[in-house]
Amino acid sequence: MKFPGSVLVSLVLFVAETAAALCLSGAYRSAGDRMWQWLTLLFALLPCALVQLSLVFIHRDVSRDRPLVLLLHLLQLGPLVRCVEVFYIYFHAGRVEEPYVSITKKRQMPKDGYSEEIEKEVGQAEGKLCTHRSAFSRASVIQAFLGSAPQLTLQLYICVLQQEITAARSIFMVLSLLSIVYGALRCNILAIKIKYDDYDVSVKPAAYLCIFMWRSFEIAIRVTVLVLFSSVLQIWILPVVLVNFFGFFFYPWILFWQSKSPFPENIEKALSRVGTTIVLCLLTFLYAGINMFCWSAVQVKLNDPDLINKSQNWYRLTVYYMLRFIENAFLLLMWYIYKTDIYLYVCAPLLVLQLLIGYCMAILFMLVFYQFCHPCKKLFSSSISEGLLSCFKFLCFFCKPPKSSILIDKADVKSPENSDEVRSSSKTIDSQKGNPHQSISSNA
């Protein structure tokens, strides 16, 4: 049975970040910065409440009549209790023979074009551990993008305004960045396991390293760009954030309305139509929060029974990173034009160049992951290099001017030469007509 290390990492990051947020908010209160104190508390407690709700929803504690567990979740102790339960199950598994065992069938990765199907016995203890791992993975994603990402942006913005980085704030920012990167990593792993649920997937350490580097560069650069832009154009950061957020929030709903599919009713049997709508709105809310800071490996599809688009779309990936790179470059350009005296001792051109190169490094690690380290790359209908090549061919074809305009331009280029020839020929004709008059006058 696999050691539940992901549960332990999620709990450590959750507890450490919450404790650091409470300590830092106390420091802001003693310094008289009430606004920073309340914003820090808001971005710390709101995701905590959402994490408790997600754990209760996944484990279905409301329908199972567990009042003590619900009380502990209300006291924000749910993840701690769940972690204790996970390790109790892990260390007591195998001591007593389980009366009921389920059999699962998984396919192995194809070798030489042949995929073998294997059967595996899964006991009750291992099934419970899988449920706990899945719940903590989803909780880590919620904590990362609805709490840690706004928190990191806020604390870095305070550092820029106050031109000071304290020890407590730097530790808190490092914890927040680790929480975001870990949440993005879990999002990638969840996407792989959901899309390739029929296969026995094993992720190698090289894949984890590529995802970690890819997400670290991408998220750190994105947060830095937003903070730099908001430090010089405070009013204009609000339209940028709202357009990004609501664009990704409504995008799955627009696709759902265009498909004219029936309203999904199979999410949870105990939920009413209103409850299902709330759950779907929270899902798209999380989807928008993820795409605000990085590429979400999971694509929401509301007309699918699993609510996930399982097809690999390289075009959407390419368009996202092209538009995000252009947006980051534009925001950095605006910061460079309107930068204030706060950045007097900062080499602005070098900083812009470093940030753009850092984002290109994130894209490079992403390409390495999908091309060489993805555990299911043998199942791709086309590799990412082929997908990017077809995308660029399509863009070049789209940007190429039509042939009619090229022919018109060539005709316009040739027309002055023709007019010069006409003028020269008319001059020769006039000269030829003038010669007889000259000869007559000479004879006279």
List the helices and strands and how they pair.
Layout: H1 5-31, H2 34-59, H3 67-74, H4 78-92, E1 101-107, E2 117-123, H5 124-162, H6 167-195, H7 205-232, H8 237-259, H9 273-293, H10 314-338, H11 348-373, H12 384-399, H13 403-443
Antiparallel strand pairs: 1-2
Helix pairs in contact: 1-2, 1-4, 1-5, 1-6, 2-5, 4-5, 5-6, 5-7, 5-9, 6-7, 7-10, 7-11, 8-9, 10-11
How would you explain this protein's 3D organization?
- With 444 residues, the chain is mainly alpha-helical.
- 73% of the residues lie in helices and 3% in strands.
- The protein is globular.
- Residues 413-444 have low confidence and may be disordered.
Give a brief description:
The protein is mostly helical and 444 residues long.
* N- to C-terminal distance: 124 Å
Number of helices, where a helix is a run of at least 4 consecutive DSSP H or I residues: 13
Q: In what order do the strands lie side by side in the largest sheet?
A: 1-2
Amount of helix: over 70%
Structural class: mainly alpha
